[in-house]
Amino acid sequence: MNMKTEVKVVDGVYWVGAVDWNVRYFHGYTYTTPRGTTYNAYLIQDEKVALVDTVYAAFTGEMMDRIRALVDPEKIDYIIANHVETDHSGALAAMLKAAKNAKLVCNQRCKDGLEKNYFGNWDYSIVKTGDTIKLGKKTLTFLEAPMLHWPDSMFTYIPEDELLLPNDAFGQHLASTERFVEDYDEAIVMQEAAKYYANILMPMSPLITKKIEEVGKMNLKIRMIAPSHGLIWREPQKIVNAYLRWASGEADKAVLVAYDTMWTATEKMALSIVEGIRSEGVPAKLVRIPVSDRSDAIADCLLMKGILVGSSTINRGMLPSLSPFLEDLKGLRPRKKVGAAFGSFGWSGGGAESVDKILREAGVEISAEPLTVKYMPNAEELKKCFEFGRAMAQKVKA
Ligand code: FEO
Question: Of 30, 100, 205, 356, which sees the most CB atoms within 10 A?
Fold first, then answer.
């Protein structure tokens, strides 16, 4: 067994997860994680012992070492599975083998998912919202949170500690030796939390608002939020307020200009558009999609009100290099965005029009018809691009 430093969250609750310093992509190759991540699991020691969530299978040994430093796994009475996804359930089979007296506690949808994922003949105890397990002085209270972000997602709450263990919600992909937000650079934590929200939770925004309101009405006191990824919030209002703002669609009065270009004509348009935006005193960010990080650009779409997307034309459509970004945007459905398409063409046209179609499908309010230029933009056309940017800036400011 490797030596492990004990990490106490509150008296009787310990972090027993794993730090994945080297993961650079999540959800396949959808989401980049340049700062790595953590898989957080929590051990609760009382008269009875409970483990909340596990880790990705490759990190089973690290989690097991942390648990063994605190308790013999055979003494674990309950293993709570808040969520079926592999990064939290990957070590479940090994854990259930080691914790041979433990019941596996989850909701029905999680059980269905675990059975289909792992085919284990496990001793389940099914819970639903409001159910509790008394461990001694501490109580585990369960709150189902369907579609935050999977149908099976569930929160575990310990009222005596005012501690919420909401699994994926309020997480960040961030590897660190520190476990608490306040011990790290908070600006970086918030940046990663926004990227996480944008790439994972954005389409569920209406449900997030509803769930936060529901928890508010239940008068649950929450002193700390310990998610399943990244750092623990000792001042939970910071992330709760950020979630409320992101879920409402409130964003900075700023414009993202994302584009790709074949022979620089569309790029010249983009540069003039950015000048037009700036002329109105509105910040703009220029991102060439294939050479920039797509999931960072998605985070920009969460944080900025305006989205302009440009493409050259190929085969009567947009450049395929833009498709992953735009398909992501379509699926993630950012709220209350204004946007428009632009781009160049040689003979047929169709690039900017294809972009316009997807922006509409993504739910973006289109502020102008696609702005197109044949071959290279001349001085007059560059002026039109400048005005196109200005008009967007005015719209964003309004
Ligand atoms: Fe971190 Fe939905 O898994």
Answer: 356
pLDDT for res 3: 79
How far, in Å, is the centroid of ligand 1 from the Cα of 82?
10
Regions of the chain where pLDDT drops below 70: 1
Same domain? For 260 and 354 the reply is: yes
Chain centroid to Cα 42, Å, comes to 21
Query: What angle is formed at CA 58 by the lines to CA 46 and CA 229, rounded to 5 degrees?
Result: 60
User: What are the Cα distances from residue 76, in Å, to 35, 51, 129, 134, 197?
Assistant: 33, 7, 23, 14, 33
Each residue's pLDDT tens digit, 199-245: 999 999 999 999 999 988 988 999 999 999 999 999 999 999 999 99
Q: Is residue 201, in this structure, part of any structural domain at all?
A: yes
Q: Whose CA is nearest to atom 1 of ligand 1?
A: 168
Q: Which of 46, 56, 83, 243 is catalytic?
A: 83
In the numeric block, which tokens belong to residue 83?
Answer: 């969520």
- Per-residue pLDDT, 162: 98
Atom of ligand 1 nearest to the CA of 153: 2
- Is residue 85 annotated as part of the catalytic site, yes or no? yes
Domain end, chosen from 229, 248, 267, is at: 248
Give the separation between CA 270 and CA 197, rounded to whole angstroms: 28
Q: Ligand 1 mean position to 158 CA, how many Å?
A: 21
**Does residue 240 sit in the same domain as residue 384?**
no
List the structure tokens of 397. Answer: 């400011």
Which residues have C-beta atoms less than 6 Å from ligand 1?
83, 85, 87-88, 149-150, 168, 228-229
27 included as an active-site residue: yes
